Amino acid sequence: MKTITVNLEMSSAVKKFVNITQKYDYEITIRSGRYIADAKSILGLFSLDTSKPLTVEIYSDDCADLLAELKPFLA
């Protein structure tokens, strides 16, 4: 499992983030405080407080390609 922190303050960033995560088969979750959502769900992300940095948990050891695509969102 890999963990990164991202900023998704604008709704356009949320949409781009979800479009990227939906391309991958492994499980990806996103956390804001004590709330957790599926990182592939746009409704799930909008249910979180995106004004603060979010923690992304990637349940795969072979995710270098995903990490490269998420680089613009890193906090």
Taken as a percent bin, the fraction of beta residues is 25-35%
According to DSSP, the number of beta strands is 4
CATH superfamily: HPr-like
Order of helices and strands: EHEEHEH
Task: Describe the global form.
Answer: globular
Q: Major β-sheet, in short?
A: 4 strands, antiparallel
Features:
25% strand; 75 residues; Histidine-containing Protein, Chain: A; four-stranded antiparallel sheet; alpha+beta
Structural features, described:
The protein has 75 residues and is an alpha+beta fold. It has a single domain, classed as 2-Layer Sandwich (Histidine-containing Protein, Chain: A). Helices cover 29% and strands 25% of the residues. The protein has a 4-stranded antiparallel sheet, with no helix packed on it. A hairpin with a 2-residue loop joins strand 2 and strand 3. The mean pLDDT is 96.
